[in-house]
From TrEMBL:
<feature type="domain" description="DUF7064">
    <location>
        <begin position="191"/>
        <end position="307"/>
    </location>
</feature>
<dbReference type="Pfam" id="PF23213">
    <property type="entry name" value="DUF7065"/>
</dbReference>
<dbReference type="Pfam" id="PF23212">
    <property type="entry name" value="DUF7064"/>
</dbReference>
<feature type="domain" description="DUF7065">
    <location>
        <begin position="150"/>
        <end position="187"/>
    </location>
</feature>
<dbReference type="InterPro" id="IPR055493">
    <property type="entry name" value="DUF7065"/>
</dbReference>
<dbReference type="InterPro" id="IPR055492">
    <property type="entry name" value="DUF7064"/>
</dbReference>
<feature type="compositionally biased region" description="Basic and acidic residues">
    <location>
        <begin position="140"/>
        <end position="151"/>
    </location>
</feature>
<protein>
    <submittedName>
        <fullName>Uncharacterized protein</fullName>
    </submittedName>
</protein>
<feature type="region of interest" description="Disordered">
    <location>
        <begin position="125"/>
        <end position="151"/>
    </location>
</feature>
Length: 332
């Protein structure tokens, strides 16, 4: 169960140098084809933090096509994770997991933003068996595709994101719905991860989050086992118990998808998505890449938006796609 204190750093073994806490906030301006990310990774026992601010417009298959990116490493770790300012110009104020205010001012004047996130519901805890009925089966597999990132403390929460963005002299209003998260615990960063982070949002009426394992075989992306997920319907949270995702890709970037889910009530949903802005995000973590995009979704006659990110450890990709890959053509 998540409490108001969970936006802060968590109790930890002070000798564990792998202890990591992260926060991630995506946002979009669909009419402009703009999709952005704010990310912080802190290692309080080492005293350092990294941060990546990335904003893409349209379809970018190469990093140099992305409109703006500012990755900073070895920043001094803040004393608090609920209220801090980093040396890259990013400030965060999060008195609870349901309230995040984020501002950023680029040192070169290329980008600034001021965003407010307000949750639509109580945060979802995938490590709580009362909230996640798939937990026992998920943790018993020992599948290396899980990685460490969501194996310890973690919450996901959907909300309304509003504010302003200035990007290379152009000003935009931000008014969207999406999810944000915070993870904490030991993290080895071995690069074996292969999982999709999927967000579907139709305002206060309906939102969906899914975490699904990926099998990359012969360069083809297949979405397999659901790790956890939830539906938020008019503020009420219901765990997802089954999900099927199909998608077409170009250079590992999903360009369209078809999602079917069933929640714990037995209620079924079906969504059809088309990417409107996509890019590879290499610099949020040196051992991973996220092939991510914001999608326009159709649910019956309703239109919504949300991020779909296929997150890979670089070693996972190298084993399957490089000239020296030992798992080329193999499953999982």
């Amino acid at each position: 169960m998540i409490t108001d204190a969970d936006s802060e750093f968590h109790p930890r073994d002070p000798d564990d140098r792998t202890w990591t806490e992260t926060m991630f906030l995506p946002f979009a301006i669909p009419d402009e084809g703009i999709f952005g990310n704010v990310y912080v990774l802190a290692r309080p026992n080492v005293g350092i933090a990294t941060s990546s601010i990335l904003i893409g417009k349209g379809f970018c298959t190469q990093p140099y096509e992305i409109a703006f990116t500012d990755p900073q490493v070895h920043l001094p770790c803040p004393e608090s994770f609920a209220k801090f300012t980093l040396g890259n110009g990013l400030s965060v104020n999060a008195p609870t997991p349901k309230e995040y205010d984020v501002s950023y001012e680029n040192a070169l004047g290329a980008c600034s933003l001021d965003l407010s996130f307000r949750a639509l519901h109580e945060p979802f805890d995938p490590g709580d068996p009362e909230q996640n009925p798939l937990l026992a089966a998920d943790r018993s597999t020992g599948d290396s595709r899980h990685g460490d990132e969501w194996e310890n403390g973690h919450f996901e929460v959907k909300g309304h994101i509003t504010g302003n963005l200035e990007l290379r002299g152009k000003k935009y209003k931000v008014d969207c719905y999406d999810g944000m998260d915070h993870s904490w615990g030991p993290r080895t960063e071995t690069g074996t991860r292969s999982v999709a982070w999927v967000s579907v949002n139709f305002g206060p009426e309906l939102a969906v989050h899914l975490a699904v394992l990926i099998n990359l075989r012969d360069g083809q992306v297949r979405y397999e086992k659901l790790r956890f997920g939830f539906v938020v319907e008019n503020g009420e949270v219901h765990p997802v118990v089954d999900a099927d995702i199909r998608a077409e890709h170009t250079q590992l970037l999903a360009i369209n998808n078809h999602i079917r889910i069933t929640d714990a009530r037995g209620k079924e949903y079906e969504f059809f998505g088309t990417a409107i802005s996509s890019h590879p995000w290499y610099n949020f973590n040196p051992s991973h890449v996220s092939y991510q995009g914001v999608f326009r979704y159709h649910w019956g006659d309703k239109v919504g938006y949300g991020e779909m990110a296929d997150i890979y450890g670089l070693d996972y990709l190298a084993e399957r796609m490089s000239s020296h890959g030992r798992a080329r053509g193999l499953n999982a």
